Each structure stands twice: as structure tokens, then as C-alpha cells.
Amino acid sequence: MPFVYNFPFFSIFICMISGIVTPLLKNGRWAYRLSLFASGAGLLLSGVLLGRIGPANESFSFMMGHFPAPWGNELSVGPLEAVLATAVCLVMMMALLGGSRDIFEDVLPEKQKLYFIMMDEILAALLALTYTNDIFTAYVFIEISTIAACAIVMAKDASATLVATMRYLIMSLLGSGLVLIGIVLLYCITGHLLFPSLQQRVLELVATGQYTIPLTVVVGLIVLGLGIKSAMFPFHLWLPPAHGSATTASSSVLSGLVVKGYIILMIRLFYKVFTIEVIRELRITNMIFLFGLAGMIIGSIGAMKEGHIKRMLAYSSVAQLGYVFMGIGLGTDIGIMAACFQILVHACTKPMLFSCASALSAGRHHNKKLHALRGAAYENKLAGIGFTVGALSMIGIPLFAGFAAKVFFASATMAQPVKMWMTLLTLALSTVLNALYYIPAVTVLWSRPAEGETGEKQPVHPAFAVSTVVFIAAVFFLGICYEPVVTLIQNGLALL
Fold this sequence. Notes:
This protein is an all-alpha fold. It has helices at about 5-20, 30-55, 80-100, 100-105, 110-130, 135-155, 160-190, 195-210, 210-230, 240-245, 250-275, 275-280, 285-305, 310-330, 335-360, 375-380, 380-395, 400-410, 415-445, 460-480, 485-495, and strands spanning about 60-65, 75. The chain is globular, with a radius of gyration of 22 Å.
């Protein structure tokens, strides 16, 4: 077995060990450095793995401890998993850098080590959800991600975050409970937990017509549970308060990564357990498609009504997640490829918007009302440029990543006349709505302030500068040089 096949396990293990070691460190600064090391190590390992298996279009399974099922556990790795894991580690590292100043201002010193423990566990959970080949292990890391995500929301010691955390926790536990019930029922009718064995048994049940109704219930429960946890419309109301009130790094990680982890698991279950053909036959994709279209519009309308810049970005995330669910709901390989590409686009763009919005508000006594940020881009030009690039990408301007994603969605729907017109019209309407709240926000930030409205000119924090430049480069890379990424995603889906 090539040594590089150990890298997925190593990346998860490093994050877990980092969380265990953190309480022994001197203070939050050292915990921060260790978290950066863990995400950087995961990025390096995932990048090397991608370079090894991507060009060769290779996939493999790795037995944990080299014990076969049912005593052991497995990881399943292909080009898609490697691309997603690399992006997860990169975004986590940049989110920590971009939000570092706010972390040490918003989180009490005695809680800072605990905060970075939660960040390490979130990264471990996301990598595990990307790589695991066992459905119960996936559930375990769903719960780890849930607990850690709630903790990083309430890390900012304020009443608003406590209320948001409780709402988030209630909805997350509801979603987790539905997923668990679905897994239990699935185990009862199949007797397996590993993805390949589950798929074989599911196909046998479909071919013989056995347990048709229980299997439909299982798929519905799992999709509904993961949909609630990933803020699929109409289960999105917990997201704006949680993302809007948390500290910057938390908002970036929650919006850019955490909700995507559950979607990634959903896609892998569709291909590796139930098969996409069975999902289409059960009409699950039609439900997801309609919820996705509704989310695109309702999220944008919510963002248009917001005067608080972080809550506006949170509602925008609801709309952008709608794009992902719409692509999955098309029920085709090219539709799900577009959804995976949108996951990467949003993961690189939204954390940059959150960190830039926070940097812009820093000079205005951390006032995040848009009317109070007039001319703030002149006080921190890098943050203003980063916010502008992110906004143009979300709108879908050519050369930016968001434009490429929308082109892929439009192309994916051409073979389905019924869904084609609904998709194209909703894409057009969503693009207009995106412009109606992002362009005014950018205009306010770059408008010359009136006398007495100017704030303090903020020095650019080196960590923030690195994060913003990397995110800007990623947005342009995905908007211009997207072909290698798309090829890797297509090849990865073909191997699932």
C-alpha cells in the first residue's frame, strides 16, 4: 500500500490530537498556533494526496487499523474527496487567520483554548464526513460537528449569541435525531453499516421490491435531517441569528464549511449507498429541487431587508445554499457536479465577505449597520477590495467564481425541459436580487462619508491580509481556471 494512502487518516488524527493537546498549552495564543498547524498540516497532506490521485483518476479504501468490517472502519478516497478535503483545510486556515483579531477581542481569555479545541474538532469532523465509508461513523462526527459548532457560536459572550445558540442547538438536534432514526431503520432492513455493503443490499431490496416503504422513509428521514442541519429552505431560520451574531472566524467557518459538511455527506450517500438512480425513482430529487429554488429567492429577499451587514451575509448564505440544493435536485451527474463546484465557490467567497465586513466595521466602533459603514472602505482598502470581489462573485459577474457556477447550473438543466425553464428563470431572478443588495452595500462602503461620519483608519493586520489575498486569488482562480477543478469533480463523481 502506498504511504500516501495513510494521509486521510493522518489529517483527521492530527486534528483530533490537536484538540486533546490544546488544554495543556499555556494560553490562547499557543492554542491558536496549534490550530493553524493542524489546518496547515491537513492542507499539506490533502494537497499531496490530491496531486497523487487526481491526475491518475485513482480511488482507494483505507481500513482503519487494517481491521476488516465489522470490527474495523474504512475511509473511502477519490479525486472528489481529495478536492473537498483540500478546500476544507484551506478555508479553515484562512478563516482562522482572517478572524484572529476578533477571536482574541470577543472570546474571554479563559475560554480561548476551549474555542480552538472546538475549531480543531470541527475540522476533524468535516474531514471525517468527507472521507468516511461507514454510515454510523458519519453520524458520530455529525454530532461532534454539532456540539462544536454550537460552542463556537456562543463563544462570543453576549446575550444575542446565547439565544442564537439555543435556536441552533434545537434545530441541529432535531436534524440529528431524524438522521439517527433513518440510520437505525436502514441497519434494521440491511444489517450493514459500511457504504459498499449497504449499497449492495439496497440494490437487492429495490430489485426484489422488498421494504419499499421503509426504504423510502429511511431516505426521507436522512435527507430531511441533513437538510435541517445544512439550512435547507424552509429549515433555515436558525442560520441568520447564529452566523450574524458569532465572532468573525465562527461565522466564516459556519457559513463556509460546517453546513457544507452535511451536504457533502448527503451527496456521498446518494452515490455510495442509495445510488442516484434510486433517489430519482423515489422522487426525492424533485423535493430537493423545489426547496432549492425557494431558498434561492427567499434567502435573497431576506438579505435585501437586512440593514445589519453580517445578517445580510447570513441570509445570502441561505440563497447560495439554495443553488447547491437546486443542483442536487436536478438528479443528474452534471447537476451534482455544478452543486459541488458551488460548494467550493461559496466556501472561498463567504468567509472572505465575513472577515472583510468585520474589518470594515472595526473602525466604526464595530457598528455593523450598513448606514454606519459609509466610506469605511477608504479606511481599510484591502477589506473594501475583498468585500467588493466577494460581492461581485456572489452576483455572478464574469471572471469571478460565482459566474462560472451559474453557467454550470444553466448548462446542467438543458437536458430537462420541465426543470430547465424553472431553473433559468430562478437563476435570472436570483441574480437580480443578489445585485439589489450587494451593489448598494458596495456603493455605501465606497461612498465618500460626510463630515463627522469618518472613523478611525485601521492598520491592516498581517494575518487578515494573507487571508484576504488568498481568498481573492481563489475566487479568480475558480472563475477563470476552473477546468481542472471541474474535471476532478467529474472524475470523482464517476468513481463514487
